[in-house]
Design a protein that fits this description.
- It is built from 14 helices and three strands.
- It starts with a helix and ends in a 5-residue tail after the last helix.
- The protein has one domain (22-33, 42-365).
- It is globular and about 55 Å long.
- The chain is mainly alpha-helical.
- Helices cover 67% and strands 3% of the residues.
């Protein structure tokens, strides 16, 4: 028997915000790809298919108690780690990276799913780990091991953007639990040689170029700096009120690369201008605040940590993607949640939303 209170306490505010953002995103994908010569289903229609699957997953996830995830969190972690290993062994290579597993009628990107898995794993660990006066360095042994294994496999693909997001999500959850300033300082000191070695011996040339182009986009305006330059032109040319739907020159004339995926917000900025961007930022800001509100009013530690992790995932995606398209962050290939085109990205975002809805629905039962 399903408790009727679950239906009467469904979080329509959160669901409404999500559907509004997704709806605007689908319309934006339609505009971004309107001038494409496409064989098969158009991108906006494929996005709607992924949305339907995401809504089905919301129904499935909301139908069971999220506390079950605490019991099987480490199994999820091990299974996803195995998928990351399989990516390196038999994964599909595209655009110089091996990030996908071909599963017949669709491609799976395990690095995206690892964001949700690491949130569940950290929530399970910290909910059973007593912290009285802040995490010390020795308290972070297991969490760092949990993080290091997928980070290594994801960087081997290579996928720097997802690796950075995993770090940010893990750090956000540790900060919520409570971490000593001395511990943070020690971690930063340990990170310095890692950054040095990574730059000189690990990062690929194109990844170095992205960082150098962030510092000086004009160093290679027709090559590796092209993305940032065209994106900034699109955002700036939108002005106060934008050029109007389907009238963005940068997108319709194909000057803007990856305009329906990582740079979808550039298309939106050109067509709807500063006012439209403010509306979108307000929607995202409200979504993040609502996620934190769900975490605050949750009555158990595992659910609260889970909500904080999902909210941190959404927040850092927004910050990194928008910072990337306006030129204040390097281009690292991070999609805008619920907005950019992409099946795995949409499913990951909807899984996070489903967890928030699940926690919100059951807050009165514990």
């Amino acid at each position: 028997m399903i408790d009727r209170r679950l239906f009467t306490n469904f979080d329509w505010t959160l669901f409404g915000m999500l559907m509004l953002i997704v709806g605007i995103g689908v319309a934006n994908i339609y505009s971004a790809t309107a001038s494409y010569a496409i064989s098969g289903a158009p991108y906006y229609l494929k996005q709607i298919y992924w949305l339907m699957l995401g809504l089905f997953l919301i129904v499935v996830i909301c139908s069971f108690d999220y506390h079950l995830l605490e019991d099987i969190s480490y199994w999820f972690y091990g299974a996803n780690l195995l998928l990351l290993v399989l990516v390196l062994l038999i994964g599909r290579r595209s655009m110089g990276a091996t990030r996908w597993l071909h599963l017949g009628f669709f491609n799976l990107q395990p690095s995206e799913l690892m964001k949700i898995v690491i949130i569940i794993t950290y929530a399970s660990f910290f909910s059973n780990y007593p912290v009285f006066d802040g995490l010390r360095l020795r308290d972070l042994g297991y969490p760092l091991i949990f993080l290091a294994a997928p980070l290594f496999l994801i960087l081997k693909q290579p996928d720097l953007g997802t690796a950075i997001l995993l770090l940010l999500i893990a750090f956000s959850m540790a900060m919520y639990v409570g971490i000593r300033w001395k511990t943070i300082f020690s971690l930063l000191l340990a990170l310095m040689p890692v950054v040095y070695l990574g730059w000189h011996y690990y990062l690929r040339d194109y990844q170095k170029n992205r960082i150098l182009n962030f510092l000086d986009p004009e160093r290679d305006p027709l090559g590796s700096g092209y993305h940032i330059i065209q994106s900034k032109i699109a955002v700036g040319s939108g002005g106060m009120f934008g050029k109007g739907f389907l009238h963005g020159t940068q997108s319709q004339l194909h000057f803007l690369p990856e305009q329906h995926t990582d740079f979808a917000f550039s298309v939106f900025s050109e067509e709807w201008g500063f006012i439209g961007c403010l509306v979108m930022l307000f929607l995202y800001f409200s979504l993040v605040l609502w996620g934190l509100y769900i975490a605050r009013r949750c009555n158990d530690r595992f659910g609260s940590l889970l909500a904080v992790g999902v909210t941190a995932m959404i927040f850092w995606h927004i910050v990194v993607n928008i910072g990337m398209v306006i030129g204040i962050f390097p281009v690292v290939g991070v999609p805008l949640p619920f907005f950019s085109y992409g099946g795995t990205s949409m499913i990951t975002s909807m899984l996070g939303a489903a967890l928030l809805l699940n926690i919100s629905m059951r807050r009165f039962m514990f």
